[in-house]
Amino acid sequence: MSAIHKFTGNHHKYAWDGIEKKELNQEGLKGITKSVLIGTVDLAPNSIMRFFQIQSGGHSRLERHPQEHEVIVLHGKGKVRIGEHIHEVTVHDVVFISSNELHQFSNPFDEPFGFICVIPRGF
């Protein structure tokens, strides 16, 4: 089943029609919201597309896992740790994180940092 979720936000508020934004309050996470843009509800058989926004001072977990990540930055700027290296990323930069690579996204800057992240389905 194909699906379209119209963008209903603006350059200050990222939102899509019919998509819930969830604040993530899990151990190791700080200041992050997640919206599943395409996923199991859409019957997507192979991948899941998510939008994350990290507030100033926020970060994801420092972790590694079997699924790879494909990322494109939509707004703001942030830092990505891959292995032992830390890289600054900004609008339109793309990031590939290999399977089982140690990684973390963080935002030490003054404005929110938002990006699309695609992972294989089933993880």
What does this protein structure show overall?
- The structure is a single chain.
- The model has no long low-confidence stretch (mean pLDDT 95).
- The protein has a domain at 30-77.
- It has no helices and 9 strands.
- β2 and β3 form a beta hairpin.
- It has strands spanning 21-24, 30-38, 47-59, 69-75, 77-82, 85-90, 94-97, 103-106, 113-120.
- A 6-stranded antiparallel β-sheet has the order 1-2-3-9-4-7, with no helix packed on it. Strands 6-5-8 form a 3-stranded antiparallel β-sheet, with no helix packed on it.
- The protein is an all-beta fold and 123 residues long.
- It starts with 20 loop residues before the first strand and ends with a strand.
Short description:
This protein is an all-beta fold and 123 residues long. It has a domain of 48 residues. The chain contains no helices and nine strands.
Q: Kindly estimate the percentage of residues that lie in beta strands according to DSSP.
A: over 45%
The succession of helices and strands, N to C, reads EEEEEEEEE
| Biggest sheet, spatial arrangement of strands | 1-2-3-9-4-7
Low-confidence stretches: none
Tell me how many strands there are. 9
Q: Percent of residues in helical segments?
A: under 10%
Given the structure, what is the number of helices?
0
Return the structural class: mainly beta
Overall radius of gyration:
14 Å
* Alpha carbon gap, first and last residue: 21 Å
Shape: globular
Mean pLDDT: 95
The main β sheet shows up as: 6 strands, antiparallel
